[in-house]
Specification:
Two copies of one chain form a homodimer. With 220 residues, chain A is of the alpha/beta class. Helix content of chain A is 33%, strand content 12%. Chain A has helices spanning 15-27, 59-69, 74-84, 102-111, 157-160, 162-169, 190-205, and strands at residues 4-7, 30-33, 88-94, 134-140, 175-176, 180-182. In chain A, helix 1 (15-27) packs parallel to helix 7.
C-alpha cells in the first residue's frame, strides 16, 4: 500500500513542492499535486452522479449515499479510493491565514466523505474506518519558530492546527503525527532550507516507528 | 457604505442561505453569494495581470504589487473593493471540519490581500488598514450547543475558530464580534430555526452598539 502525499501550492518551484517531492521520494509514495491536476476544491452537487435527494443538496447525506451506491463523480471516486487504501497520509501546503489553503481544505471537504472517513450516523467520532491511517501535516510558514512558541504571537502549532489535527485527522480515527513546519521558509538561507528537506526525509525514513501525538487505535 | 454579507453554501435553500438573506435584509447589505456567482477559491497566477516576478509566483509579493499597480484580475479587483469599502463584514457558512468551507477560505486567501487587509512588510499584524471593519462570523453546525461547551467534544466556538477570528479578522485589525452559531441546524424543528433567524436579525439591528470581543482600534 503506497503512502499518499498531497501537495497544495500554486507554484511548482515553491518550497512546499520541494518538501512534497522529498516526502514522495523517501516514501516511494503516490504524489497528488492538486494544483497540477486542476483539482476543484468546491464541494457541489456535481460530486454525486446519483442523488438521494435531487431537490436539496445535503452533503453528508449524499456522500453516504454515494459511498453505498458507488456513485461519486470520477475525480472524487479516484481520490476517495486513494485515501481509503493508504496507511500514511502526508498533506503538504503553506500556512495561509493560520490554516489550510482553500485547495487543501477543499480536498478534505470533498474527499473525507461520510461513510468512509467517518460514519454519521453510526460510528462515534474520533474512532472509525480510517484508524489504520497515520496522518502527517507538513507546512511552510513565513513566521519564525519563536512566533509559535509560548508568548509568541501565532500560538502553538498544535493549537493553531486544532481544526485539522483534532477536528479532521483524529475525528476520523487517524493517528496524528507531530506536524512538520518549515519556519520562515521564504527568508532562511539555502543551507537552512536544505536542512529542512533532510530533516523531513530522515523523519519519514522511520515514520513507522514514530509514536503518534494522539488519535487512532493502539497499533498492533 | 453598505455592509457586506458573504455566503458560502452550495445549496440555495440551505439554512446558511436563509441566515445570509436575513442578514442582508436587516442590514440593507450587499450580498455576495459565492457559489451562485461561481467564485473560484483557488489562488493562482491568474489573480494578477501584471506580475512583479513572472518566473515564480509568491502570492504575498504579487498581491502587494497588484494593490500598488491596480492590476488584480477583474473578479478579485471587485471583491477587494467591496471588502475595502465596507464597515461591517458578515461571513455566513456551514462549519465543515471545524473550519470554513473551501469556498469561504478561498475568498479569504484571494481577497484579504497584502497591501490592503494587512501590510507586509509595514504595519504590525493585529493593526492595520481594516481597523474600521467590524467582522461577524455566522455558522450553521450539525452539532448541539452542548458540544461547544466546556467538556463538550468540539471545543469552545472561540477556540475552534481561532484561525478565523484571531488569525484572520483580528490579524487585519478588524473588530471581532461574537460569532453567531445556529446549532444543530439540520435537526432542530422549524420553530427553533425561525428563532435563529429572529435572533440574528435582532442582533444585527443594533450591531453598531455591540462591543467587539477583541481586535481593532477603540472606536471613536
Amino acid at each position: 500500500v503506497p503512502p499518499l502525499v498531497v501537495l497544495s501550492h500554486p507554484e511548482p518551484t515553491s518550497f512546499a513542492a520541494a518538501l512534497a517531492h522529498t516526502a514522495a521520494d523517501v516514501l516511494d509514495a503516490q504524489l497528488l499535486d492538486l494544483y497540477a491536476e486542476g483539482f476543484d476544491p468546491r464541494l457541489t452537487a456535481a460530486d454525486f452522479t446519483d442523488r438521494e435527494d435531487a431537490a436539496r443538496l445535503r452533503p453528508m447525506e449524499e456522500q453516504l449515499h454515494a459511498v453505498r451506491t458507488g456513485s461519486f463523480a470520477p475525480d472524487i471516486a479516484r481520490h476517495v479510493e486513494l485515501l481509503r487504501s493508504t496507511d500514511l497520509l502526508v498533506m503538504v501546503q503553506p500556512f495561509w491565514w493560520f490554516s489550510l489553503p482553500a485547495m487543501a481544505k477543499g480536498w478534505v471537504d470533498r474527499v473525507f466523505v461520510n461513510g468512509l472517513a467517518y460514519e454519521y450516523p453510526g460510528h462515534e467520532p474520533w474512532t472509525g474506518p480510517l484508524d489504520h491511517v497515520r496522518a502527517l501535516a507538513v507546512f511552510t510558514s513565513s513566521y519564525e519558530r519563536e512566533e509559535f512558541e509560548p508568548g509568541g504571537r501565532v500560538g502553538s502549532v498544535e493549537s493553531v492546527l486544532y481544526p485539522l489535527l483534532w477536528g479532521t485527522f483524529a475525528y476520523c480515527g487517524m493517528q496524528v503525527l507531530e506536524p512538520f513546519v518549515a519556519y520562515a521558509a521564504d527568508s532562511v538561507d539555502e543551507e537552512t532550507r536544505a536542512g529542512y528537506l533532510e530533516a523531513l526525509g530522515g523523519r519519514l525514513e522511520s515514520v513507522e516507528a514514530e509514536a503518534p501525538l494522539f488519535g487512532g487505535q493502539p497499533s498492533g
